[in-house]
Structures are given as structure tokens and as C-alpha cells.
Amino acid sequence: MKTNIFKQNSILALMILCFGAACTKDFKEINTNPVAYGPSSFNPNYTLTTAQLTYTGSIDFSYDTWRGNLIYCSTMMQGLSTVVSYWAGDKYMLNEGYTAAYWGNAAVGAYIEQVRPIVDVVEFTKGQQKYSNIHQVARIWKALIFARLTDLYGDVPYTQAGQGYYTSIFNPKYDSQQAIYTDLLKEVDEATNALNANGDKITGDVIYKGDIEKWKRFGNSLLLRLAMRLVKADETTAKAYVTKAVGKTMTSNADDAILAHDESGARVTQNRNSQVLLGDGGQEHYYVKWSKTIIDLMKNTADPRLAKVAVTKLYLNDGNKNQNSNFDANPLVQKGMPNGKDLSNVASQNINSDPAYTTMPDYSSPSPMMLKRNGITFILSYAQTELLLAEAAQRWGIGGSAATHYSNGVKAGITGLSSYDASMAIAPALADTYLLANAFNPASALQQINTQYWLQSNLQMDFYETWSNWRRTGFPALTAVVYPGNATNGTIPRRFPYPVEEAAKNGANYQAASAAVPGGDKLTGRVWWDK
Fold it and tell me: Count of CB atoms within 10 A of residue 246's CB?
């Protein structure tokens, strides 16, 4: 599963006859190419950049983002909806190639494009004082990568993954999710505490530009998120690590972990969600809309974000991918598309059966300001962090006031949309008005907090995170789609099955992991923390 980024130099057998004089003691230095690139000249900053960029999506035209984040997670969580036939997630159908996309194959995917480079950075910088900070940041980033992998699939290769060059293990064992989370928490905690503002400068960091204090707050915010995943599986551990993170997490939207993309890089550096939703590969521009579930929630609560995130008439027909400059952003006319509909000849399934149906352009599309090719990808935000602190305070009475954290999180989520584009800025006063109308209620606090988390993660287009937190909490209470021939008996999927090619490539390890999945290796199986 792993080959290293360094190419091993071939060993030259040199037979030298020395007549009366010894061979020079400087032979190695004299015969080394001074411009050759290898371990002695390797700069791990470049590889860190690669691992950060590929976390936002595959360089092979959004391979994993298209299938994992959008086709499956966004629609299962009723953030987006579509009638595009191959968007299997909207109807709870199983497309094994799509559910395997995030894991990857021999060319692309998380194990190839994320795990390999970040393991190289961690291993190369280990024990090198001149790379101490980059080593700690790489440990944190590695934990971020593996957290998403294990959240999607459950037990996965972890301790031996990416280690082929270092250990010659090319068929890595699957570690249990419980063991993985135990190590992730330890790694993030240790690495965050070891960061030193007076240490080495990180030049390849495209998230915080080497700002160590921001990395400390990111590390503790990630620690909080990892810990909160375990509230039903291991509450004691969850509470212990949350307590460690309290008071050291993100303090404002300025701490948001965001990767800004570059349009000039085509498939390599452009925003991955944008590439798909602008219709580069199909009809997504015209037929993918905001779900009725999310639009109705924002309309019913007079959410000021609705006027910024949704527009109608963005595209007037499916054959023209040029955006209509006269789109309508009036919140009163926004209309979400129901999930589970198609363009078939079956009356009950066709989108025409929606009582609100008029024309496709009348359904709400994501704002073009959210889909700029040089736009941003949210990694982890202050808004999410405050909502998790609100839940921790409500559950255990630690870390301050649940109501205060809730207000901070909601307000940050509203005002933080300006990160997409300055035109999406919302005045703090409008956020205050919204909070007055939707005040914190201790009697329904967990539902209220996690409904806001669902909304916030959807609007940040991190649908992987939306799905994970929904599985953990069950909030909001979503009405499942019942589509003919679905693979889940009309229930919302709980995990991605393992890639079928693992049976051939990593047989015994794969078989053992498959047999251990609670509920079976299918869409209705469950990961360890999903109780």
C-alpha cells in the first residue's frame, strides 16, 4: 500500500585497484551529485503542502469529493438533493465504486494521496530538532486524515498504513476503530503540547502560514471534536480529553482552518466542490439543488443566511453552464428540492410529483459565491468548535455556559460566511436578532445544538462531517427517503462498505475486518462509536 516519495538509489559496485596509494577518504563526498534530490536534501515542507491540499479532494478531478462528499454524504444528510440518476446516495442505493472512492485505488484516494505524503513527513522529521514543529503539525494532520477515514469505514489500516517503505509491510492490518481513536487522541494531545512558537518555521503550511499559536488552537479544537465522537462509546475518555481542550480551542472566526484554492491550477488546485457543482463532469450545475429539508429549516426560523447561500434561476437550462447573472437571491422565493425524486416515468418518483414543482430553475442552487473555483474549503471552524463546547457544557457542566457557547457558535456560523466572499457578509446585529428568536432552550439543548451543527457543516459544504455528527447524535431528526430498490430498507446509511478490491489485495486482513463490522459490511453496518 505504500511506496516512499524518495527513489532508492541503485547501489554501484565499484572495484578500485589501489597501487601503492590508499583510496581517498573523501570518495563519497567527491562522488555525490551536489544537485541530486534525496533524503539529505529533502524539504518536508513541500510534502506537507501536498497532504494539506489533497485532504480537500483528489487531484484526479475531485474523484473522492464527487462521490463521497457530494453524491453520498450531502444527499443522505439532506443538505443537497438531486434527480441526477447516478447520484446513488440520494436514494440510498449502493454503488460500490462510489463508496470506495474516498478510500481510493492504485492511483487516487486518501491512502494514496493523503496518507502516503503525511506519513513521509512524520517519519522523515522524527527526531530532527530542526523540523520539530513541522513534525508536530504533521502528526496533527495525520490524525485529521485518519479520523475521517475511520469515521467513514470503521476499522481501517492505521498503524501499518503508509509504512511500506519503512517496514516492507504492504498488506497492512486493520486496526479497530477503538484503538485508532485511542491513538488519535494521544497523538493530537502530545503534538499540540509540543508545538513551540520559538522553534522551526513551517514554510509549507497553506492553512495557517506557519502560525504556531493558531496550530495550537486547531490542535485543541480537533482534540475536542475527536473526543466528542466518543460520547456514546466511551464517555469517560470523551470527558477526559474534552477537559484537556477546554480554554485552549479556537477563539474567533479568524482561527478557522481554511484552505484557499487557486483557479490557475486546473484540476490540481481548484476547489473540489466547485469543480463538480459547476458541472465540469456532468449535469450537476442544473440538477443539484439545496434540499427541501435545509431550505425549509432556514425559512421557518428566519435565518439570515438564507439570503446569502441560496439563489433561484442560476441556470436556465441544462445545456448551458453559463450562470445567469440575473439570479434571484430573495429569501422569500427560495425553494428546496425534495430528496428521493428522479426523472423517471414513474409518477410518484418523478420530480413533477412534488406539489411545489414548477420548473427546475425555480429550485434553489448554492450561491455562486460559494462555488468559486478559487474559493475555499473549510477544514474545521470556530463555529463548530463552540457548538461542541456547548454540548460538552450541557452534558457534563464543564467548560463554561452551554448557552454562551451556543450563542457564540451560531453567531460565528452566521457571520463567518464572509470567508466565502465579502459579499456574503452578514451584520452581527442580524445574528443577534436570529438568536433572540431562536434562543437556547435547556430542555431541548442537545437537539438544538446539533441541529445548528448540522446546518453549519452543510453550509460549509463539509458533508463528511455533517454525516459523522448526525450518526453520533441523531439530530436533526431526518425523515428517510423510501426509494424503490434501495439498499437499506428505507433507512439512512450508517457507513461506507469496504472497497471490494481489498479482498484481492489485502485478503486475510480484509476478511477479518469485514466480519467484525456491527451489522455487516454494508451501508447499514455501524462504526464502533455509532451506538
Answer: 16
